[in-house]
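DM from R.C. (forwarded with permission)

"hey, sorry to bug you on a friday — could you get me a structure for this? deadline for the figure draft is monday and I only need the backbone to look sensible"
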Amino acid sequence: MAMAISRTRRHLLATGPAILLSSAKLVAASPPSPFSHPPRAPSAFVVGAAPRASPFRPDRHLLRAHSAMASSSSSPSPPYKRAKLSDLPSSTKTIGTHSGTFQADEALGVWLLRQVPAYRRSPVVRSRDLKVLDECDIVIDVGGTYDHEKKRYDHHQRGYDERFPPKANGDGTEEERCTKLSASGLVYRHYGREVLGELYPQLKGSDDGGDAGSPELEWVYTRMYDSFLEAIDAIDTGVEPVPPAQEGEEEVALRYKDGTGLSARVGRINPRWNEVDASTGADVDPDARFEVASALCGEDFVSILTKVVEGDLPARSIVEAAVRNRLECDPSGEIVEFASGGLPWKNQLYDLERELKVEVPIKYVLYTDQAGMWRVQCVSVEGKAFENRLGLPQAWRGVRDEDLEKISGIEGSTFCHAAGFIGGNRSREGALEMARAGLRAGGGGGLG
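My reply, with the result:
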């Protein structure tokens, strides 16, 4: 467990004392570490409070590694810059959730709430006593009620079937989400746009911070659910990653199990059934561990959000320009050229084909690599890792340099991968001709 919880997360708990909530009053407690064992509260435990003398600032801890990563980049400054939230005032409102074993959904939900002004660094009450929870300003993952007006966000009650909006398919149809919203999904539904706008103010459509955001905010909002929160929801609500076999089909067995995901890592932060403090012999405090879990969820959220906002979003404008100007690259409309290489383009391309109603699917993209070589890369079938819409000609595959020039008849050809998904040429004209030759060999005009 010591390796699972980093020194920075241990420092997180040492930076601010916890607060014990009894039935009569709030009592200050000494600062815990993840492995220290303060006395049990009479009825509930409030974690993460922010006294004036030593404010609890998880955002400073969460963003440290990402700031260092951004400062080491040699590329130009991104158009979006994450805001500094550590100096903003703390909230006195309390967040309620259940006590005992915790999961990623409520740990993430608490972190998300703490990013918005109404619950900034709010203390957390962990209890299953409804009388205690009734005193909280907002309650998640417990209570048997989902009511946004009353600020109650549970998902365990009978008849509950709240889901994120349907997902767009490649053929223009929509697909219902496989999972119901967990506690974090509900928090994200109602507060996600505000969270994103707090972390990246440039995404806001207006200064009032309302629900109506810019197109960029809406794009990031959906992308974050697709790439991060949906999996948290699915795991918490018991959705298997492999769909059940249909009639006449064989069951698909997993080849291996992955224990590195966020939900699994949060689960390991819970005290073990037989875990005690080596120095005192006392029980491990689960409420202190909950703070570690919540911070871990925030780290992952910020890590993915940074990539989406500072990497994917700026790349989208480049990919969109390439798609709109595809006929200038080649009259077929099946080849696009990017102004620079290395940008994340695949998912962007699929989305833009739908949005711009591209009738003939794009087959190849042209760009330069870090060494200045021109590449021609096949566009894969959406949802498939290794199946291309149209691969490069079979005769080229695995051939290099002069041999490839002779076979292809294209000057400057340097290589074609053995799987036929990418090739190279010393010039733009040569790479474009390789793509055109691929279209001729495959017939063009559709999936190949």
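R.C.: lifesaver. Confidence is low (pLDDT under 50) at residues 1-43, 48-77, 444-448.
me: no worries. The longest strand covers residues 364-368.
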